[in-house]
Design a protein that fits this description.
This protein is of the alpha/beta class. It has eleven helices and twelve strands. The protein has helices at 8-20, 23-30, 34-48, 64-87, 102-105, 109-119, 132-140, 197-208, 222-230, 252-255, 276-296, and strands at 53-56, 59-62, 94-100, 123-129, 146-150, 159-166, 168-172, 187-192, 213-219, 236-238, 247-249, 262-269. The strands form four sheets. The protein has a five-stranded mixed sheet, sandwiched between helices. A three-stranded antiparallel sheet has the order 10-7-11.
Length: 309
């Protein structure tokens, strides 16, 4: 059996096109003609030995094999870039100030900081795990270089939406909350302190459906929220990302609860062209975010690439 060796240059074009949602834009970014990009994508399908793309309206979307290929392409490119930085003795120095929403603090931060510190030990990182409002305020005031936040509709000068993640009702992993739709009792909610995007979305959905609710537990931290939810004090509202084992998503229909909308995930940058250290940390963070979101919600990050000339 002939061994398949994927072309990293082709994989970079593929990953860039999917990231931008358009291969014409990828051609501009990579300094290639659209015909050259088209030839590279054809080569990728030949190397893969299976269709990577399928028709989706007037554009293209990924097949199941294409989604698998994209995940591996990102990992291969990330490893290649880390190896290049290591063997070429690229000594990044300086200071990067990173902010993360609480859902990603425990699950994402250790991996991101570990990978970055191993490759660039001379860079100092200041990380803050805080609520959305503070993240956006700190980016716009120049107190953070980079922030990962849920979208409340606020746009900063240099922000990029990277995913659309569904919100879910969350209950205890073992047992159930002492509430049912026919009980006549209001839904007991466990929530973070206001302002909270997810709490607002949940109460709006309940009000629209005519379902009464009450705040059974309010916490200033995510850890307190998980403890209360696991104990059955109330139903909480989060996304499927970073859930501890002691809680689980509830099927809205089975629980008698309304469906919830999705929530955008946005990267905010303080500058349009960040320094090398910030840019490198952003690349590592985005890779980890894609993997975390992709594991929890496989369809959340797959943009459909539109047709190109």
């Amino acid at each position: 059996m002939r061994r398949t060796i994927f072309d990293l240059d082709v994989l970079r074009t593929f990953a860039t096109g999917m990231e931008l949602g358009n291969f014409a834009r990828a051609a501009d970014r990579l300094g290639r003609s659209t015909s050259a990009v088209s030839a590279q994508l054809k080569k990728l399908e030949e190397q893969a030995g299976t269709p990577i793309f399928r028709k989706a309206g007037r554009g293209l979307a990924l097949t199941d094999a294409g989604e698998t290929m994209l995940a591996y392409a990102r990992r291969l490119l990330e490893l290649n870039d880390e190896a290049a930085a290591a063997v070429q003795s690229i000594e990044l120095e300086g200071w990067v100030r990173l902010g993360l929403q609480e859902d990603f603090g425990e699950t994402l931060l250790p991996e991101v900081l570990g990978r970055f510190a191993r490759a660039h030990p001379k860079v100092r990182i200041e990380a803050r795990v805080v609520r959305n409002v503070e993240l956006i305020e700190r980016v716009t005031s120049g107190k953070l270089d980079l922030a990962l936040a849920w979208s409340d509709g606020t746009l900063t000068p240099h922000c990029e939406k990277i995913a659309e993640v569904p919100m879910r009702w969350i209950g205890p992993a073992d047992g159930a909350v002492d509430w049912s739709l026919g009980s006549g009792e209001p839904v007991p909610l466990a929530s973070l302190e206001a302002p909270c995007l997810l709490r607002t979305a949940a109460t709006k959905a309940l009000d629209t459906s005519g379902i009464p609710w009450r705040l059974a537990f309010v916490s200033p931290s995510l850890g307190g929220l998980w403890a209360a939810t696991a104990a059955g004090l109330g139903i909480s509202i989060r996304t499927p990302i970073g859930l501890p084992r002691k809680v689980k998503p509830l099927a809205a229909n089975d629980a008698g609860l309304p469906e919830l909308p999705s929530l955008g995930l946005v990267v905010h940058r303080a500058e349009a062209e960040p320094g090398p250290a910030t840019a490198r940390l952003a690349a590592i963070m985005l890779q980890s975010v894609r993997e975390a979101v992709g594991d929890a919600v496989p369809s959340a990050i797959q943009p459909a690439a539109t047709a190109y000339a």
